[in-house]
Amino acid sequence: MLKKIAFRMKLIPGNEAEYERRHREIWPELVTLLKDTGIVDYQIFLDKETSCLFAYQVIEGDANSQDLGGTEIVQHWWKYMADLMETNPDNSPVSVALPNVFTLL
Predict the structure, then answer these.
(1) pLDDT for 30-51, tens place per residue?
(2) Does the keyword Isomerase apply (predicted)?
(3) Is 76 a catalytic residue?
Protein backbone atom coordinates (compact mmCIF):
# COMPACT_ATOMS: atom_id res chain seq x y z
CA MET A 1 0.00 0.00 0.00
CA LEU A 2 1.31 3.45 -0.87
CA LYS A 3 1.52 6.08 1.83
CA LYS A 4 1.90 9.83 1.26
CA ILE A 5 3.52 12.26 3.66
CA ALA A 6 4.30 15.96 3.53
CA PHE A 7 6.44 18.22 5.67
CA ARG A 8 7.93 21.68 5.57
CA MET A 9 11.42 22.97 6.20
CA LYS A 10 12.96 26.43 5.97
CA LEU A 11 15.95 27.79 4.13
CA ILE A 12 18.06 30.62 5.42
CA PRO A 13 17.12 33.42 2.99
CA GLY A 14 19.59 33.87 0.16
CA ASN A 15 20.46 30.17 -0.12
CA GLU A 16 17.80 29.15 -2.63
CA ALA A 17 20.11 28.77 -5.65
CA GLU A 18 22.73 26.80 -3.70
CA TYR A 19 20.06 24.51 -2.23
CA GLU A 20 18.80 23.73 -5.73
CA ARG A 21 22.35 23.20 -7.04
CA ARG A 22 23.22 20.71 -4.29
CA HIS A 23 20.04 18.75 -4.96
CA ARG A 24 20.78 18.62 -8.69
CA GLU A 25 24.04 16.94 -7.65
CA ILE A 26 22.52 14.67 -4.99
CA TRP A 27 24.82 11.81 -4.09
CA PRO A 28 23.98 8.53 -5.85
CA GLU A 29 24.38 6.54 -2.62
CA LEU A 30 21.78 8.77 -0.94
CA VAL A 31 19.36 8.24 -3.85
CA THR A 32 19.90 4.48 -3.54
CA LEU A 33 19.19 4.58 0.21
CA LEU A 34 15.98 6.55 -0.30
CA LYS A 35 14.74 4.21 -3.02
CA ASP A 36 15.73 1.10 -1.03
CA THR A 37 13.73 2.51 1.90
CA GLY A 38 10.61 2.47 -0.29
CA ILE A 39 10.43 6.11 -1.32
CA VAL A 40 9.05 5.98 -4.86
CA ASP A 41 8.43 9.71 -5.28
CA TYR A 42 10.12 12.55 -3.38
CA GLN A 43 9.54 16.15 -4.38
CA ILE A 44 10.56 19.40 -2.72
CA PHE A 45 8.96 22.71 -3.64
CA LEU A 46 10.21 26.19 -2.73
CA ASP A 47 8.13 29.22 -1.77
CA LYS A 48 10.61 31.95 -2.75
CA GLU A 49 8.71 34.64 -0.84
CA THR A 50 9.10 32.87 2.52
CA SER A 51 12.09 30.55 1.88
CA CYS A 52 9.87 27.68 3.04
CA LEU A 53 10.29 24.25 1.50
CA PHE A 54 7.35 21.89 1.04
CA ALA A 55 8.39 18.24 0.77
CA TYR A 56 6.14 15.45 -0.45
CA GLN A 57 6.86 11.71 -0.48
CA VAL A 58 5.07 8.66 -1.79
CA ILE A 59 6.26 5.58 0.08
CA GLU A 60 5.82 1.83 -0.23
CA GLY A 61 5.98 0.46 3.31
CA ASP A 62 6.28 2.15 6.67
CA ALA A 63 9.63 3.98 6.53
CA ASN A 64 10.32 7.44 5.08
CA SER A 65 13.26 9.81 4.82
CA GLN A 66 12.53 11.14 8.29
CA ASP A 67 13.39 7.68 9.68
CA LEU A 68 16.90 7.56 8.17
CA GLY A 69 18.72 9.93 10.54
CA GLY A 70 20.72 7.10 12.08
CA THR A 71 22.49 6.30 8.82
CA GLU A 72 25.96 7.63 8.12
CA ILE A 73 25.11 8.95 4.65
CA VAL A 74 22.08 10.91 5.91
CA GLN A 75 24.08 12.40 8.78
CA HIS A 76 26.75 13.44 6.26
CA TRP A 77 24.08 14.99 3.99
CA TRP A 78 22.59 16.89 6.92
CA LYS A 79 26.02 18.32 7.78
CA TYR A 80 26.55 19.24 4.12
CA MET A 81 23.21 21.08 3.99
CA ALA A 82 23.27 22.64 7.49
CA ASP A 83 24.71 25.97 6.36
CA LEU A 84 21.70 26.54 4.08
CA MET A 85 18.71 25.85 6.30
CA GLU A 86 17.27 25.92 9.78
CA THR A 87 18.57 22.85 11.62
CA ASN A 88 18.38 21.04 14.94
CA PRO A 89 21.52 20.54 17.10
CA ASP A 90 22.25 17.24 15.26
CA ASN A 91 22.21 19.11 11.88
CA SER A 92 18.88 17.53 10.86
CA PRO A 93 16.57 20.02 9.17
CA VAL A 94 13.88 21.52 11.36
CA SER A 95 10.93 19.66 9.89
CA VAL A 96 7.23 20.04 10.58
CA ALA A 97 4.85 17.26 9.52
CA LEU A 98 1.86 18.51 7.54
CA PRO A 99 -1.44 16.67 7.91
CA ASN A 100 -3.48 15.90 4.80
CA VAL A 101 -6.67 17.94 4.87
CA PHE A 102 -7.94 17.32 1.33
CA THR A 103 -7.52 14.75 -1.43
CA LEU A 104 -9.08 14.86 -4.88
CA LEU A 105 -9.08 11.47 -6.59
Answers:
(1) 999 999 999 999 999 999 999 9
(2) yes
(3) no
